[in-house]
Specification:
- By secondary structure, the chain is of the alpha/beta class.
- The protein is 43% helix and 20% strand.
- It contains 9 helices and 8 strands.
- Strands 1-2-4-3-5-6-7-8 form an 8-stranded mixed sheet, with helices on both faces.
- The chain starts with a helix and ends with a helix.
């Protein structure tokens, strides 16, 4: 996509579809008005949206890792969790909950969990749609399911999974979180609900809670924001200010000139490699600081 103005307008239209109306007919109509034809509009949508074909950076069968998917009951509801950890032992590992976007637990998030494990943690990636049948293959359906999900159930399951992660042989007894978009918002909300029961949280471009909730946060937080993401900035900026005013440990970074979802390398148009690598390096260092035994 060579026209920066067209690209930016197309990204805003796609973000409105993803986070607001979720009506694909409206998306196609608005993209066609921008691009001039249905064929070009479909190309724009494909370039901005996430592609399952680009989902894997670390192989599902990476020989350095042990992975499994576990199904159980958590907080009285069905639960599914993808687990990944380094195969090599030798030291106690902190646990990191990897929280998915509004597409649910998909191949990209499982891949991110493996990256977290390769960085030296136990990774726990729940499917927060499990109580309602689990993440479907259709991303539009997943977004609709998340919009209708019971947030009390989601928070209860998240807190229970985090509490369970503190236990077990080979763990440091410390737990943290990293989440993206919808998952970034859940990181903030779990930090409010958990108080001092968790040890660190990292949120990528997640819409923030009301500022008055900041006093309830007990864990150090790292917050990543996209410079072109006005929708999230209108909640993120007062959230950061409230955390600082309440004396909380918070590190906040805004990456100029990048879009919402800049870390998602399955989106050809929104992924920004320099910003993503800088944010990821900061994230891993932050998690090691607070979670290592």
């Amino acid at each position: 996509m060579t026209d920066p103005s067209l690209r930016d307008r197309a990204v805003r239209v796609y973000d409105a579809f993803t986070h607001d109306h979720r009506d694909r007919r409206t998306l196609l109509r608005e993209m066609t008005a921008l691009a001039g034809s249905v064929a070009l509009a479909e190309g724009l949508i494909a370039a901005i949206g996430a592609s399952p074909a680009r989902a894997s950076i670390t192989a599902p069968g990476d020989a350095r890792l042990l992975t499994q998917t576990v199904s159980s009951t958590v907080a009285g509801k069905p639960a599914t969790v993808y687990l990944a950890r380094p195969k090599a032992g030798g030291r106690k590992l902190g646990t990191v909950m990897v929280i998915h976007e509004n597409r649910g637990l998909n191949d990209h998030i499982r891949d991110v969990a493996r990256r977290v494990a390769l960085a030296g943690f136990r990774a726990v990636a729940p499917d927060f749609l499990a109580p309602w049948g689990g993440t479907p293959a259709d991303e539009d359906k997943a977004r609709d399911m998340i919009a209708k999900a019971d947030y009390d159930v989601i928070v209860a399951q998240g807190l229970a999974i985090l509490a369970d992660a503190k236990r077990g042989a080979g763990t440091s007894g410390k737990v943290g979180m990293v989440g993206f978009c919808w998952g970034g918002a859940l990181v903030d909300r779990l930090a409010v609900a958990a108080g001092a029961a968790i040890d660190a949280g990292v949120a990528y471009y997640g819409p923030a809670p009301a500022p008055e909730q900041a006093v309830k946060v007990g864990a150090p937080l790292m917050l990543h924001y996209a410079g072109k993401d006005a929708r999230v900035a209108q909640t993120g900026e007062p959230w950061v200010a409230a955390l600082k005013a309440a004396g909380k440990k918070v590190e906040a970074f805004t990456y100029p000139g990048v879009d919402h979802a800049f870390n998602n390398d399955t989106s050809a148009e929104r992924y920004d490699k320099p910003a993503a690598e800088l944010a990821w390096g900061r994230t891993i260092a932050f998690l090691h600081k607070y979670l290592d035994g």
